[in-house]
Specification:
Distance between the termini: 48 Å
Strand order of the largest sheet: 2-3-1-4
CATH class: Alpha Beta
Radius of gyration: 18 Å
Helix content: 25-40%
Oligomer: single chain
Number of domains: 1
Number of helices: 3
CATH superfamily: Ribosomal protein S6/Translation elongation factor EF1B
CATH topology: Alpha-Beta Plaits
Strand content: 35-45%
Shape: globular
Order of helices and strands: EHEEHEH
């Protein structure tokens, strides 16, 4: 089982029904053999840009351990629901932080070293 977190944004008018969406998505994860470890409702927040003519959205973060098949099923269901404006799933490493690809980590460290070298010059 791999740890994941999925952040999804619900239409702002349906924020009161967030519990229904959470229960539905939990059932999908549980049905695929996964376990939900944490649910955080961030509430109604401003969007960086309009999505489907909405300036606000209701944010919910799910943290869970599941297989790739469970993630595919969860995302398939979110994609089919008009009430879900956007979603993003990230695989976590063992420490609970987003997993970086080795190439990305190497690029990030090079940029940091270059920035330090320039500031010292």
């Amino acid at each position: 089982m791999t740890p994941y977190e999925t952040l999804f944004i619900i239409h702002p008018d349906l924020g009161g029904r967030a519990k229904e969406f959470i229960d539905r998505f939990k059932a999908i994860i549980d049905g695929q053999g996964g376990t939900v470890s944490q649910v955080e409702e961030w509430g109604l927040r401003d969007l960086a840009y309009r999505i489907q003519k909405q300036a606000k959205g209701y944010y919910v973060l799910l943290q869970y351990c599941a297989t790739g098949r469970a993630v595919d099923e969860l995302e398939r269901n979110m994609k089919l629901m008009d009430e879900v404006l956007r979603y993003l799933t990230v695989r976590l490493d063992e420490t609970g932080k987003p997993a970086l690809q080795p190439k990305q980590a190497e690029t990030t460290s090079k940029k940091t070293e270059e920035g330090v070298a320039k500031s010292n010059a």
